[in-house]
Amino acid sequence: GVFDLVPVERLVVDEASQIDTFEFMHLFHKFKELQKICFFGDPKQLPPYGKEAAPRIQTIFDFKHIKPAAFFLETQYRMPIPVGDFISKHVYNSKLRSDHRITVMSCVKFVNVSKGEETKVGSSWMNMEEVHAVMNLVRYYYKTKDFCVITPYDAQRGAIQKSLKAADLPWDMVYNVDSFQGTSATNIAV
């Protein structure tokens, strides 16, 4: 094949913090000419899928002997500065800097859904009051804008999609945290 003609010598693995190291083994076997591999990922973000059920799953960042060779990329460019500063303070011990054109606090709004209660749905969770709040946000504010909705729970995602679709509102931009990876939108409701 093509790799016999042009052997792979360098490999870049993105989102490495979401991949079980066992999943890399076939690469090392297949690409015997491999000289250098770079892993990009953030161990403070999403763990590999299924880590809750199988806690022995390890990412490349779980190996202590590799940590001294790791670099912290201290500047983020994707989030508005107020959001980036919040995450820097509460997740990265104020070590993450933000470089973004949006600098004002008004880019972040909070909606208090005071009467909502989470209910268990299978192995997931749902809050119908939050579903109604999201519907109102979409109906009166986001409907004609570049937006998406992110929720930590798959049952909540399904309920929001179903309710938006029933109300003839845009419903296909609703994600759970896992499925949002690699996606972006100008306006995001969490």
UniProtKB/TrEMBL annotation:
Keyword entries, A-Z: ATP-binding, Helicase, Hydrolase, Nucleotide-binding
Annotated signal peptide: none
A Pfam match: AAA_12
Domain DNA2/NAM7 helicase-like C-terminal, chain residue ranges per copy: 69-185
GO terms of molecular function: 5'-3' DNA helicase activity; ATP binding; hydrolase activity
SUPFAM superfamilies: P-loop containing nucleoside triphosphate hydrolases (SSF52540)
Domain of life per record: Eukaryota
InterPro entries named in the record: Coronavir_polyprotein_1ab (IPR050534), DNA2/NAM7-like_C (IPR041679), P-loop_NTPase (IPR027417)
Name of the protein in question: DNA2/NAM7 helicase-like C-terminal domain-containing protein
